[in-house]
Structure formats: C-alpha cells, structure tokens
User: Fold D-methionine transport system permease protein from Leucobacter komagatae.
Amino acid sequence: MNAIISELGRVFGEHGAEIATAMAETGYMVLASIVFAVLIGLPLGVTITLTRAGGLLENHKVWLVADLYVTVVRSFPFLLFVVFMIPLTRLVFGTSFGTVAATFPLAFVAVAIYARLTEQILLELPSGLWQAAAAMGATVPQTVFRFLLVDGRSGLVYALTSATVSFVSYSTVLGVVGGGGIGDFAMRYGYQRYDFTLMYLTILLIVTCVVLLQALGHRVSRALDKR
Assistant:
C-alpha cells in the first residue's frame, strides 16, 4: 500500500499540472459537443421525424437531406472522419491542430448522433399523443414543444447522457490532430514512455468521469419521468 501511495505521489508530483490541463481540454471538447448536440442535433432530429413519410410536415427532399447527413456522418469511422475534415477545419480555423480546431469534427458527429437518438425517442412516443395534439387543434410548433418534447424529455436526457459517454470516447482520438485531452495524455506520457502507473491513473480518471456523467444523467432523467 505504501508503495502504491508513493507511486501515485510521484505521478501527481511530476505530472499534476499536465493532468489538470488534459482534463480541462477533454472537458472543453465534451461540453462543446453537448452544446452542438442540443442546439443543432435536437432540432435536426425533430425535423427528420416531422418530415418523414406520414409525418406532420411530410417533405421527402428535406427528410432525405437531413437523414442522409446523419447516416453518412454516423457511418464514418471517427478517426477517418477527423482526417477527412482537416481541409474544412483548416479553412474555418486557419489550422487543423489544437483543442478548438479538433473539436470541430467532433461537433459534426455529436449533431448526427443526437439527431438520430432524438428521432428514435420521438418515434417511440405513444401514437395517442400525436392524435391528442391534432384533436386539440395544436399547431406544429405547439405539437413539438407542448407535447413531443415534454413527453419525451426523460428519454431525451437519457439519450444525451449516452451520447455524452460516446463524446468522451471520441475525444481521446483527437490527439492525432493535436486536440490534447486526457486520452492523448495517457498515450504520450503513459504508454509511449512506459509509465504504466500514469496510464492506468488517467484511465481511472476517464472511467470515473463517465460513471459520474451517467449517474447525473440517469438521476435527471428519472426526475423528469412523470409517468
């Protein structure tokens, strides 16, 4: 036990500041992904649901474009997608390296993932909900905001929690374009330098963050579930 404590003391003594910086970089990438997922992915998922065949706003062209974006982005292996996005990232930010630039492709993926999850949640709502909205003469915006999103809020929060865990995993890949983060730190300072104590410690930090995120998301989801 004393040896373990001594080894942990060495790791924090030598790399404490770098670990804190790496955690902050991961936090930035994940938080930015959540923001894009909610602000763009949620409306995109609603659009796909409404414009599909038989939807309230059936529109094949709009549905095709939106659904194609989600399908294509989600089917891309993430590492290849990051590389594929380098020219656009460089055009937008002037560079493809750094935490901010590396978050750009992750935001595209976050939007696609949460849009699909949103579509699935809304389609699983009872058909009676749609009929009740129509019977009350609700407009499309009223149907969305007063019926669908209200009744589906618990599932949407749960889906966002699951998506966030994926964002954490994806963020560990962004070290290939200088994105930093705790995963990249574990590879560079732990694995590549054969400092396995450091590597296992950073893995433990990642797992701890994921567990806490899941616990928080599940708690909020249960609190919103009024069924």
